[in-house]
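Slide 14.
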Amino acid sequence: MTDPIRTERHDDVLVIISDNPPVNALGAAVRQGLERGIKEAEANSGIKAVVIRCDGRTFFAGADITEFTKPPVQPMLPEVCDLIEACSKPVIAAIHGTALGGGCEVALACHYRIAVPSAKLGLPEVKLGLIPGAAGTQRLPRLVGAEAALPLVASGDPISAKRAKVIGLLDAVVEGDLVEEAIRFARGRIGKPIPRTSELANNRDGITNPAIFDDFRQANARKLRGFEAPNAAIEAVKAAGELPYAQGVQRERELFMQLMMGTQSAAMRHYFFAERAANKIDNLPADTQPLPIRKVGIVGAGTMGGGISMNFLSAGIPVTVLEMEDSALERGTGIIRKNYESTAKKGRITAEQVEQAMSLLTPTLEYIDLADCDLVIEAVYENMGVKQDVFRELDKVVKDDAILASNTSYLDINEIAAVTSRPEQVLGLHFFSPANVMRLLEVVRGDRTRPDVLATAMALAKKIGKVAVVSGVCHGFIGNRMLAKRQEQANALIMEGAKYWEIDEVMVEFGFPMGPFQMADLAGIDIGWHRDPARVETVRDALCAAGRLGQKAGKGFYDYGDGRQGTPSEEVQEIITRFSAQSGKGSRDIAAEEIRERLLYPMVNEGALILDEGIAQRASDIDVVWINGYGWPLYTGGPMFWADTVGLAKVVEGLEQHGLPVSGYLRQKAEAGERLTR
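Slide 15: predicted structure.
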């Protein structure tokens, strides 16, 4: 194996270089090489300064997290960082790309830090349910102050080189050749006192103004709700001001190990690998090449069609959007522009970028204008007959080698493909609403979908910033099929005496952003309603007949005032009570634990069926769907990983206790003492 670390002598400056693609992860060989490099510099009196830099596209972008579950290999990163900081000769970190996690900690251990303007620095460990473990929470506040350190450590989002220079994390941002500038910078520090970060005292702001910690918690309460790591990060930064350095490092280590041994970090590390595994397609020939997608057509300029269009426009791909009437086309394109302009007002894009995106959009009323598109996505009403008519028309006019896709949420892709002369070029692309915001994309593989068509969809998803998961064909695919089981139980529970707001509260307490009835109000209770106010057979029929259509009507299951915060409705509860009495099931008090089990265990069971039927490629794909598409709390790892932490035997027992079905696959796994996820 090639040594990932080498050194180069530039007269009196030793340059230590890492070449460990793809991201210069700080694995054992890299740590050992850094140790050798610093010792080489110390042993040679002719070397007066040291530069640490990386080849490839980035500085050290973090630890090698595959090592987390393996026996430790010395030296560990804290020891390497201490060795760097203790060096008797000035050590300069020369940063390009990203200095993240352990990479940022290496930079903090260096005596000086310089970077190119495009560089980013950060401590994203909280995104894996951890905090920095190589004194990052202690060195950073001592360098930049507690207030500036808090967002970096507790939120985990990287900052630009410019911002890093402003807060004092960087000593210089250099425009020229990074290597030359670093060597020049190093020579300018020879013979001067060495500033060791652990000995600095810029962290006193947390002592003089202790409110900054509670203020940060309050300002970020919604984003941090339910997560353990951010609170540990805040505590560690606070300790940096209250304790001597050595004790602060000890406190950081205690907090780190508590998190490392906990369920949340295991869940979040599971998700980290799950998202990457979702990109891999089973049974795809190794030589499969994606097809070029230079132009996209969208049929339908409504909420979904407009949102889907924006994904491609933002990625610089021209879009032709088709509608049947001028008014609908004008309304749809107007909303696209309004959305872009709203984003520009928030400073996320420029006015020029708005115009650039809109210049790529071609509205049309004629199918023939889609003829030269490489991909056409249908986003019309969720009705099989309507969708088949659209595909028949597309098959006639769109070029022979184009891919045809449906945005259906439930319907059979094979049935849709069957009305075309090219079923091998048909698949589902199920975007989630709002399509320009939600990250999830279910890529539905039909029975005859060609491998290169599937590979194209996955590659395109990455280009437009989506997290794609492959699904087989079934009613509702992965996400909505499981959602239906949750909704069945939610509806059954209100018939048995549970209050609908109690059900929502249980789901929010679990970690969802909203419960099933709050979600119904947001989406619109009338979606799929038969529209006959005289035909009232269910609670939903009664609500729709009473004009309680959800948030858009100001009332649904909840009453809404000026904002989106709903309050329970006496009228709705009376409707539910009436239907409950008619059902003859009686009414009883239902504990939160039963509500949670009856809503979530059937989802796990359905997920097991989805795996057994081969609809999902792997259990972790199901977790990716639910975390990105439905707000399942990340810190539980998704429904399948969560079931493993609960214990499959307990899930089976709960299903049986509540008189609910248990799949053979789930029972088999439980009896064998196995897991759904690996």
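Speaker note: The CA atoms of residues 439 and 466 lie 5 Å apart.
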